[in-house]
Amino acid sequence: MNMNISNKKNDGSINYEKSLQYWADIPPTVDGVLGGFGFISNIDIEGSELFLKCLFSLDNPPLRNTALDCGAGIGRITKLLLIPHFERVEIVEPNETFINSIKEFVGEHESKLGTLYKVGLQEFKPIRKYDVIWVQWVLGYLTDEDLIAYLIRCRDALEEDGVIVVKENVTSSGKIEKDHTDSSVTRTFKQYISIFKKCDLKRIKQCKQANFPNGATVTTGEDTCSMLTVARRGTPRKSLEWRTAAACDGDAALWIQGSDRPVKGAFSRNFHYT
Ligand SMILES: C[S@@+](CC[C@H](N)C(=O)[O-])C[C@H]1O[C@@H](n2cnc3c(N)ncnc32)[C@H](O)[C@@H]1O
């Protein structure tokens, strides 16, 4: 599938052709897709696993039929996180070498792979519904305008209790950081919140990934952390805005509906309240 290359206003450093070119030179390995930080993969997956388990213990949990891995690289998240929990996993990834490596990387579980879409997220138009749409370390390659349009398309492609999980680095400097090498940006937390609102997405649970070694930020910038957010369709009410969550068996920090403060929950070594 062709990538229609467009550069829309703002995010001046984002150029789809340039980021595609950057990734074309990267070897199809875990270390490659994690920018030389392959050693954080286990910690990352462990944290995501806990988060996913909490989602399954919501009152109205997503089903485990079909997940979508967006900006999937070689299928690291598909293989290590999604395939064990879902009947079928589909993939969106524009890099030809990466997408051609996925089946081999996934190995014995290849039969669980659904359609692999070789296309950028800015062009991707879902043709089916998903229970979980997992989006990790890729949104920095999209302009704000394309990101909003993409999230709206994902929102409309959710099954009834479906969720979008966004795991992205955010700057704590309060300023957007640009990386001219791979033509990406690292947004601030506030920018993501504002974007979710524009998409009519309600944030229902959030955790911060801890235990990443200093400097291990896969995209750009030194002063960043990785946040995990899950969102569903629906305009948030002001007082409850970002605090709706159900109790969970224990490993992640939760906001409880209607509370002003995070309610005591168990802390795992990989999470803490944001
Ligand atoms: C840091 S890697 C993360 C890969 C995977 N999410 C993971 O965590 O293992 C970024 C991935 O985003 C992909 N990518 C870059 N620009 C993209 C775009 N516009 N649309 C979709 N994917 C893109 C790259 O090809 C690469 O596979």
TrEMBL record:
InterPro entries: MeTrfase_NTM1, SAM-dependent_MTases_sf
Pfam family, one: Methyltransf_PK
Catalyzed reaction equations: N-terminal L-alanyl-L-prolyl-L-lysyl-[protein] + 3 S-adenosyl-L-methionine = N-terminal N,N,N-trimethyl-L-alanyl-L-prolyl-L-lysyl-[protein] + 3 S-adenosyl-L-homocysteine + 3 H(+); N-terminal L-prolyl-L-prolyl-L-lysyl-[protein] + 2 S-adenosyl-L-methionine = N-terminal N,N-dimethyl-L-prolyl-L-prolyl-L-lysyl-[protein] + 2 S-adenosyl-L-homocysteine + 2 H(+); N-terminal L-seryl-L-prolyl-L-lysyl-[protein] + 3 S-adenosyl-L-methionine = N-terminal N,N,N-trimethyl-L-seryl-L-prolyl-L-lysyl-[protein] + 3 S-adenosyl-L-homocysteine + 3 H(+)
GO cellular component terms, A-Z: cytoplasm
Keywords assigned by UniProt, alphabetized: Methyltransferase, S-adenosyl-L-methionine, Transferase
The EC number(s) this enzyme carries: 2.1.1.244
GO-annotated biological processes: methylation
Domain of life: Eukaryota
Molecular-function annotations in GO: N-terminal protein N-methyltransferase activity
Family assignment from sequence similarity: Belongs to the methyltransferase superfamily. NTM1 family.
Name under which the protein is recorded: Alpha N-terminal protein methyltransferase 1
Annotated organism of origin: Arctia plantaginis
